[in-house]
Amino acid sequence: MSYDIATKCIHLEGACKGSIYGAVSFPIFQTATFAHPGVGQSTGYDYSRLQNPTREQLERIVASLENGCDALAYSSGMAAIAAVMELFAPGDHLIVEEDLYGGSVRLFQNVSQKNGLTFTCADISQENIEAYITPDTKAVFIETPTNPMMHVVDIAKLAQITKAHGLLLIVDNTFLSPYLQNPLDLGADLVIHSGTKYLGGHNDTLAGFVVTGSEELSEKLRFLIKTTGSMLSPFDSWLLIRGIQTLSVRMKAAQDNAYQIAWWLTKQKHVKKVFYPGLPSHPGHEIMKKQSRGFGAMVSFEVDSQEYACSILQKVKLIQYAESLGGTETLITYPITQTHADVPKELLEKNGITGGLLRLSAGIEDAEDLIADLSQAME
User: Lower CB density within 10 Å: C or N end of the chain?
Assistant: First the structure.
């Protein structure tokens, strides 16, 4: 039987019901090591850096949600991205979307380049990347929608190009979650998630995932996670299993709130631009309708001055001024000093990340209460 994704968030296909004393909640196997029945014998588990039943259950769930053959759970989203960079060798070249989460930019510029990788930044939502491909190019790395400017990349179209040139296509799917978008189905080779965000959903733990549909890539990544030890702990794995159970209902509620907030923002006199793919005026609106099951719960907007932006951050009451996204609580972030503080000034300016830009992660509170809070903060 094939389950709908909302059901798959709660019930893993093929799972053996009642195999662990009939427990409805999957147990936490909080152990570092496992005893062997005898020499040359194993229970299937040896050491929790290599494999742990709780983490494996989580990985099976995420692989199922993304329609992949394997998912690996890491200690954070950045640990997941760092692991993917270990697939490459000194001298390899990657083409990356120029509007990325600042932590990814920091990793590429300060760690990956030190290790011999080279990068070309491009507006992949608009530019033909074939002009940037060299004999050393090995992969293309994107977010869609991007963080924080909400550029939308046509994944299937890009996948045709990467496959024609023998390149890996890596898609950070954090903003939409597997509930709304499945990049592997569109031709991507690797999908990355900051599980801290929508998959966890409660701002109470850090996690990251890499999902693939390739057995070859799975084998390489399994070797790396065993060697570097960047895996997720059993207890945090259990928190993610619990969080994913409500992914569908949280995403529906948060997306509905984001849509109402985005429309409301378009009517405010001090708001210059609203960046939300759910608005018909957004240049990526039609692409999103084609490749996704919704538009997500992230809204960025630009107000007419840095002073006014800071005033909003000071005045919000229900909405919390904090980094991160994807939780039940609505958060508002100031990219230029928070998520993108380490991005070079010239790249910030090119991408339109100014002192007047704010990023909002809609939570699941009542939409009217959230709009009322923004209204009083913008008076």
Answer: N
17: which residues sit within 8 A by CB, 6+ positions away?
none
Tokens of 246: 């409500």
Is 101 part of the annotated catalytic residue set? yes
| Nearest CA among 104, 157, 82 for reference residue 127 | 157
Residue 60 in contact with residue 104, Cβ under 8 Å? no
Q: Is the pLDDT higher at 122 or at 13?
A: 122
Q: How many residues does the chain have?
A: 379
User: DSSP E strands: which ranges in 116-234?
Assistant: 118-122, 137-143, 168-172, 190-194, 208-212
The domain made up of 5-244 has a fold known as Aspartate Aminotransferase; domain 2 (3.40.640)
Q: Who's near 353: CB < 8 A, 6+ residues apart? A: 148, 149, 335, 336, 340, 343
Q: pTM of the prediction?
A: 0.96
Listed as own residue / partner, the contacts of 41-47 with beta carbons closer than 8 Å and 24 or more positions apart are none
Domain parsing of the chain, residue ranges: 5-244, 247-377
pLDDT in tens, 64-84: 999 999 999 999 999 999 999
String of DSSP letters for 304-317: S-HHHHHHHHHH-S
In the set 8, 55, 138, 197, the catalytic residue is: 197
CA distance 142 to 189: 12
The residue from 55, 70, 92, 101 that is catalytic is 101
Vertex 275 angle, CA 357 and 125, to 5°:
110
| Active-site pick, 70, 99, 154, 172 | 172
User: With pLDDT > 90 as the criterion, what percentage of the chain qualifies?
Assistant: 92
Active site residue 49: yes
Alpha carbon distance 9, 4 (integer Å): 9
Domains 5-244 and 247-377 share a fold: no
The string of DSSP letters for 263-304 reads: HHHHT-TTEEEEE-TTSTTSTTHHHHHHH-SS--SEEEEEES
What is the CATH number assigned to the segment(s) 247-377? 3.90.1150.10
